[in-house]
Amino acid sequence: MFSFCTDPSILPQWQWFACYLTTATHFAFYRAFVMVIILLIITAPIALGMGLLGAIAVRSRIWPVSWLGRGYVNVVRGVPDIVFFMFVPIALGQGIEWVFHHIQCPDWDQPIRQGNDFIVCRDAKVPPIGSPAWVRDLYAFAMAVIAYALVFGAFAANTLHGAMQAVPRAQVETAEAYGMSRAQAFRRVVLPQMWIYALPGLSNIWQILIKATPLLFLLGIQDAVYWARELGGQKTSLYTYPHPDWRVWYFLVLLCFYLFLTWGSERVFSRLSTRLSRGQATAAGERLRKAAA
Amino acid sequence: MRSCAESFEGYILRALGRAWGERLLPRGLDITLCDQLFLIASGLIWTVYFAALAIFFGFFLAVGVAVARFSENPWFSRPASAFVFVFRGSPLFIQFFFCYSAFVLLPRSGIDIPLGFITLTVNTSTLTTAQVGGLIVLVLNTTAYSAELFVGALRSIPKGDLEAADAYGLSGFTKFRRVVFPSMLRLAWPSYTNEAIFLTHSTTLVFLSAFPAREQAGEAFYYARYFVDQTFNPFVGYPIVAAYFIALTLSIVGLFGIANRYLNRHLPQERRARIRFRPQYLR
Q: In the structure, what pLDDT confidence band is assigned to residue B274 with cuts at 50, 70 and 90?
């Protein structure tokens, strides 16, 4: 990175660190933090969307839809989450390949599961054979996002369903008295008002989502945990930057990163809670009204 | 191929180490369904070990931390709050890695703590095993989460109860033991049940993180993952371990339900707090 970094073994302390902390592998480590943020930003809206769909499905008057919603919420919540994180990417990957296999190679006569192998024809491989490394990485990342969205969607569905029930019944009845249909009342009255009731639960889920991101490591993705282990491990003098076992410092950085993330989001959520309480028929809303008057 | 009885004999106690069953785990095409059922079941030994001991030690520590946090003296409440913040604000997975890499740095020979008349030697090499080091992390983690629940309960103890205690002339530790502690426990119990369930689920992370599984002796999810890696078939191992965990969860709900009934025995039926089955959150 810097011009003086050509021979690190003769550098004084601070320059050595300046060079050490700007190696290519360290930039991969820093990118891993950005990846955590990206994962959160992508997953949260998808999970919220799935939660909304799930909650609407649970409320539905058509019983197959309602049962589907209930089934989704209860199955995901009843099974230990970590099992789901490990299960979904593999199962989904095999499922996709299975479907492609039946579309692309209908005249394939051998069984797909042979002993301990999962064999599909060449055209059905996802991502396709010979695709570059970044496509593979992206595919693995997308699978992880789907797993997170599925699990956290079920949590969110449960919270949102509770929030929809919590909107005062009288308001919905008033809307119906004005001649609104069920859908209209839902769109104009329930949907805008439910958020304040959903917020504590959603904030909790968000915190859990943050704390679940290091599990990416278990899915074989080169995330911050992976790099902390790689970079922190003892390096002999064969390496350009020899150092003893520094893993504890790397994990301390990770620990602080997550503490900062949870602390920051707690503050954001408390702001949001004040904002959403405005004009609501709750104790917090009443307090805001009195303060303004 | 092994028969079911053979794999029961070979693997039901395998999680305790090589001496307790087959030396090697079943591999590749040699894996039968019974192998998976029994080996994963044997891993439950460690799941129960971690969960039971962590809940036991964590409970007493959590009561202490909660009281310290609720105290008006900043010398007690500040450190307690900081402890709770650090362990609740960071992922358990990272805590495992951090503590393991810290334990590894301790001198191998042990640390001598002079206590004046006697010198206590702490055996540091056991700290790098999952059975001790991992347990310590789990205890600290559950202490933080339960302390938060207990503080919430301390805050919501009815004012009348405390005033009644004062009126009876109770003070200090007697007041705590007879009035504050039982009320706190009663109020916190439903959420404490959930905490116990989450803790049991998070024991799966012990062997998935830094702590090594010596002699391939791990807990249930470690074996489930081993089988999925071997057979490349996620539709057998993971459902088995999920079923075991659901059974474990239900037994925790049952046990804690008995305790809940005992704590609420003075209340009329309909006012008793119910324990709700909510086994979802990880940390």
A: low
* Best to test chain A binding among B84, B93, B103 (most A CBs inside 10 Å): B93
Percent of chain A with pLDDT over 90: 19
CATH 1.10.3720.10 fits domain A3-292: yes
Which residues are within 8 A (CB) of B18 and not within 5 positions of it... i.e. 6 or more apart?
A: B215, B217
Of B97, B190, B229, B82, whose CA–CA distance to B144 is shortest?
B82
Question: Which residue ranges make up each domain of chain A?
Answer: 3-292
Cis bond upstream, residue A12 (ω within 30): no
CA distance linking residue B122 with residue B101, whole number of Å: 18
Cα–Cα distances (Å) from A238 to A26, A30, A166, A242, B146, in that order, read 18, 24, 64, 7, 48
Q: Which residues of B are less than 8 Å from A202 in CB distance?
A: none
Give a three-class secondary structure readout of A214-245: HHHHHHCCCCHHHHHHHHHCCECCCCCCCECC
Query: Which one is predicted more confidently, B113 or A213?
Result: A213
| Residue contacts between A and B (CB atoms, under 8 Å) | 123
The structural domains of chain B, ordered by start, are 4-113+121-271 (1.10.3720.10)
Q: Is the CB of B90 less than 8 angstroms away from the CB of A211?
A: yes
ipTM above 0.90, yes or no: no
With H, G, I as helix, E, B as strand and everything else as coil, classify residue B281. coil
Please name which of A117, A115, A139 lies closest in space to residue A129, comparing C-alpha atoms: A139
Helices (H), chain B: 4-11, 33-70, 74-89, 92-105, 135-155, 159-167, 172-175, 181-202, 220-231, 234-263
